[in-house]
Amino acid sequence: MAQELIRLESLEGRLLFAVPKKGRLLQASLNLLEGADIQFKRENRLDIALVKNLPIALVFLPAADIPTFVGEGRVDLGITGHDQVQEHDAGVRALARARRMSNEWDTNAAPANGKPQGCEIVMDLGFGVCRLQVQVPAKGEYQQSRDLIGKNIGTSFVHLAREYFARLELEQDGVTDPALAEGRKLRTKIIELSGSVEAACALGVADGIVDLVESGETMKAAGLKAIDTVTETSAILIKSKAPSNPALVDLIAARIGGVITAQKYVLCQYNVPRERLPEATKITPGKRAATVMSLDEEGWVAVSAMVEKKQVATVMDELVTVGATDVLVLDIHNTRST
Ligand SMILES: Nc1ncnc2c1ncn2[C@@H]1O[C@H](COP(=O)(O)OP(=O)(O)OP(=O)(O)O)[C@@H](O)[C@H]1O
Ligand SMILES: O=P(O)(O)OC[C@H]1O[C@H](OP(=O)(O)OP(=O)(O)O)[C@H](O)[C@@H]1O
């Protein structure tokens, strides 16, 4: 406790950066921090770590809570899933609707710390890619989401699931007037589950579920199939609308952006006869433009250009067909551009 108090005091003047404390996004987030040279040592059981080389404190939080902390301006920056931000925003919309219905207007809605509410997406981080899908027993009677109207749905994403089924119910009932839509009670029952959602159908808790799917292994093992996608998601960097140190937020964003670019691209170098250069640079246009240098051999040039990793094999094949030789592919450790 004493150690925790000392730490809280030393947060003074530091930018607060929320990082998922466990789960699917943790390791990739730590790799990003390392790539961005954000140095820290996380003490055992402590969810706050002071960064040694920058005025930043990392706060390790559940991915699902990070949009709330950033959105309320308690924390300046955060890494979480886009699905979690969407779920949080759907929750905010539900609360606003409930307040409108009960005529409870302004006082509770004002942020306690006076900061503007909500978070902004700074960039996609390229990992944690998956889909939030409606799933039903593979051998069951339900074929489309509409068949689940009025049934029990198990999920951790209750607000997104509610909005999804509310839309389906409106469509089915032919309601187009937003005023009529506002006060309607949902016929579909959304059951909040905090984990192992895929077991809900087999255990008779739910008729269908709304859960994340990446490889589909979990879904298949549970005897389920996907019948619709609620949203697609990946990890994102978010910032509060009023960060305590905007310049430091921009610096961190630039560093993280550089690491992501480095992970996404390789450097392709080759030699090519000068007269084939236009064809070659069409294949490797580079991020801005390819670098072309003269070779100490008449009629030849050396070219280097960044190429997306996932395209590099095809690019190499194509370069050879236009007469390139000595094609090399090099890893990029880090990058920075404006
Ligand atoms: N199979 C997956 N593949 C890719 N990304 C995933 C996958 N499962 C979850 N994610 C991403 O990671 C985020 C956190 O999910 P995760 O299951 O790791 O949560 P958690 O914080 O460990 O909580 P829980 O205790 O509910 O499992 C999700 O919101 C989603 O953005
Ligand atoms: O399509 P797949 O590749 O099988 O991935 C999907 C699973 O991954 C996530 O759960 P996770 O394993 O993180 O644990 P959890 O169920 O406890 O959230 C998600 O909730 C699915 O269950």
Folded structure, characterized:
The chain has three domains: 2-127 and 235-244, D-Maltodextrin-Binding Protein, domain 2 (3-Layer(aba) Sandwich), CATH 3.40.190.10; 130-233, 3-Layer(aba) Sandwich (D-Maltodextrin-Binding Protein, domain 2); 265-331, 2-Layer Sandwich (Alpha-Beta Plaits). Helix 4 (82-101) packs across helix 5. It has ten helices and 15 strands. It has 338 residues and is of the alpha/beta class. The mean pLDDT is 92. The chain has a six-stranded mixed beta sheet with strand order 2-3-1-4-11-5, with helices on both faces. Strands 8-7-9-6-10 form a five-stranded mixed beta sheet. The structure holds adenosine-5'-triphosphate and 1-O-pyrophosphono-5-O-phosphono-alpha-D-ribofuranose.
